[in-house]
Design a protein that fits this description.
Elements: E1 3-6, E2 15-18, E3 36-39, E4 42-44, H1 49-58, H2 62-76, E5 90-94, E6 101-106, E7 120-125, H3 131-146, E8 153-157, E9 160-164, H4 173-178
Antiparallel strand pairs: 1-2, 3-4, 5-6, 6-7, 7-9, 8-9
Organism: Heligmosomoides polygyrus
Family: Belongs to the choline/ethanolamine kinase family.
Keywords: Lipid biosynthesis, Lipid metabolism, Phospholipid biosynthesis, Phospholipid metabolism
């Protein structure tokens, strides 16, 4: 079983792959969740999470996923996300990605002092199951995020991650071919 570990404080991003099941360190700079309950009787574990998570998200409608996504937000992001009721969360499936499933998740803003935690995030469910490629992508993403050249990494879990939402638009096919 493999787990992601790392990202302490302001130091250089450090990610390790281990072959032993290991709980994440308590001082993670980025939240980490090691398992996720899909329903009362079944638990997706890190060993099968990327494949099972992708299958689960592909087989359910966004409205059916609302409570599961909110549960994941509460577990990984914590804070105000743990206080939100499912019916007050807005979830939009973001189209245009090549392979991953991406969701825009928004919760109500409670007050001005709620600034320490974003009320809108991107949830990315990885389709890649090759651990080496996943690790490479995560290291590159983390490096860009830590240097301010990309969206912030808000939390990771086996099978996906939460990213900062930066309002933007999709690049059209015409724009790509004209460059």
């Amino acid at each position: 079983m493999e787990s992601l570990v790392g990202l302490r404080g302001k130091s250089e991003p450090r990610i390790e792959f281990t072959r032993q099941p290991a709980p994440p360190p308590t001082a993670l700079h980025v939240p980490f969740v090691g398992s996720w309950i899909v329903n009362g009787s079944r638990c997706i574990t890190p060993a099968n999470m990327p494949t099972e998570m992708l299958k689960y998200f592909k087989s359910h409608d966004v409205l059916d996923l609302r409570s599961k996504i909110l549960s994941l937000c509460a577990d990984v992001l914590g804070g105000k996300w743990a206080e939100v009721r499912p019916e007050s969360v807005s979830i939009t499936h973001v189209r245009g990605g090549l392979t991953n499933l991406v969701y825009l998740v928004s919760r109500p803003t409670f007050s001005v002092s709620d600034d320490e935690q974003p009320s809108t995030v991107l949830l990315r469910i990885q389709s890649q199951t090759d651990n080496e490629k996943l690790l490479t992508e995560l290291v590159v993403f983390t490096s860009l995020a830590e240097s301010g050249l990309g969206p912030k990494l808000l939390g990771i879990f086996p099978g996906g991650r939460f990213e900062e939402y930066i309002p933007s638009r999709h690049v059209s096919h015409h724009e790509v071919t004209d460059s």
